[in-house]
Design brief:
The protein is built from 11 helices and 19 strands. The protein is of the alpha+beta class. A hairpin with a 4-residue loop joins strand 12 and strand 13. The strands form 4 sheets. Strands 13-12-9-10-11-14-18-16 form an 8-stranded antiparallel beta sheet, sandwiched between helices. Strands 3-2-1-4 form a 4-stranded parallel beta sheet, with helices on both faces. The termini are far apart. It comes from Paenibacillus oleatilyticus.
């Protein structure tokens, strides 16, 4: 038959035509209109304006199915999880249902499951009115974190630490579809991996060396893939197996991305869990560290291609990723390429002449990304400092005229 692919990524980052070549089936690609010209080996390629928020994607999927049916839907990105679930339920197609999708996108439901099952997480509440927020602050105090229930990439997340900031938030109006939780002091870690045929198959653990909210200060985010021998790798793997896997409705075949706080008093608290691969080029770090491509394996499993991965994954190399931040102004100089042999991937996202009029809006609102390697954590940290220095010396911004 055929396979429908809902996809926000550019062609060079996601190779469905290569992965599915042996199936000899028609591939239908729905993507952002910016990427249409780069997808060649597909029976249908349809581009959509502002793809992530375009409801025509779902309608066109139903129209396409009525003319040339497809047997499954592949959706690997956060923005496509819910819409794929709706389409599957409507057309009675196997795969992740809307109910399952909703659990991994709605943070209130996600944390309600945690709370119900005794999984440690920050104190939280949905907020639909200013009085609900008032009651939460009266009971739990400041600081607090306010964010969309279905947000991604830390977009529109606010930390409120003072009464003045809180009053300003009230003045602007409490938006619909938001939640509040107590602010957690500590280090953020992330757990990524694979579930195949309902079995836990692989786990990688990463450490954010900068806050996921540093983008709000136009700062970059540096993530390190930890060695399996690292104590935190072992603790977090056990945390996932004991506190997350038993209680959440994971699809039969999926990747996962789980963020966990390590608090100052040595507790582990669930932040979020998603039924997708990590962003921030962490997936590429994992591919280089373990020679395991999460997206490729997950996609193949969903279409029925036999998968074989090692029972015990061995880390081949220590890797990290750096998201290069934006500044406000006109970009007049940027890194063309890095002179370091240990930089294994550099992806610029903009060109000289790019103009930016506001602060970063999420963790992937960047001018470029770097993946690099080292022999151990200390060497990786040293190389991170070298990258920052080189980027600072070779990136300039010019003030915009009013």
């Amino acid at each position: 038959m055929a396979i429908l692919i809902l996809n926000i990524f550019p062609a060079h980052m996601i190779e469905f035509d290569t992965w599915f070549a042996d199936l000899n089936e028609d591939l239908y690609m729905f993507t952002d209109e910016r990427h249409v010209k780069d997808f060649h080996n597909y029976s249908v390629v349809k581009g959509f304006e502002k793809y992530s928020n375009n409801d025509l994607v779902e309608v066109e999927a139903l129209r396409l199915f009525s003319e040339t049916p497809f047997r499954t839907i592949i959706a690997l990105a956060e923005t496509d999880i819910l819409r794929a679930g709706r389409i599957r339920d409507k057309l009675n197609i196997p795969g992740q249902s809307l109910e399952s999708s909703f659990v991994f996108r709605d943070k209130v439901m996600m944390k309600t499951i945690a709370k119900t099952n005794g999984v440690p997480c920050a104190i939280f509440s949905e907020i639909d009115t200013p009085l609900e927020l008032y009651d939460f602050v009266e009971k739990n105090g400041l600081p607090i974190v306010i964010k969309p229930r279905d947000g991604a990439g830390s977009a529109n997340v606010q930390i409120i630490s003072t009464k003045e900031q809180l009053d300003r938030f009230y003045t602007l109006g409490v938006p619909k579809g938001y939640m509040v939780e107590s602010y957690v002091e500590g280090v953020m870690y992330e757990i990524d991996g694979l579930i195949l045929n309902n079995n836990f198959k692989f786990c990688s653990v990463g450490k954010y060396h900068s806050s996921m909210l540093d983008y709000q200060k136009n700062m970059g985010v540096f993530t390190e893939i930890l060695s399996p021998e690292d104590n935190m790798h072992q603790r977090l793997r056990s945390f996932f197996l004991n506190n997350i896997l038993p209680f959440y409705p994971f699809p039969q075949n999926t990747t996962f991305h789980c963020e966990v706080f390590h608090t100052l008093d040595d507790q582990l608290l669930l932040c979020e869990i998603a039924s997708r691969s990590p962003g921030g080029r962490i997936t590429e770090c994992i591919r280089q560290s373990y020679e395991i491509n999460l997206d490729e394996i997950c996609a193949k499993a969903q279409v029925g291609i036999p998968i074989s991965i090692p029972e015990i994954a061995v880390m081949k190399v220590h890797t990290g990723s750096l998201m290069i931040p934006k500044n406000i102004g006109r970009l007049t100089k940027m890194v063309d390429k890095f002179p370091f042999p240990w930089v294994t991937e550099y992806q610029p996202r903009v060109k000289v002449g790019y103009e930016n009029h506001s602060n970063m809006v999420n963790t992937i609102d960047i001018i470029g990304s770097v993946v690099f390697e080292g022999n151990n954590e200390m060497e990786l940290l040293d190389r991170f400092q070298k990258l920052q220095e080189y980027i600072g010396q070779n990136t300039t911004w010019e003030m915009l005229e009013n």
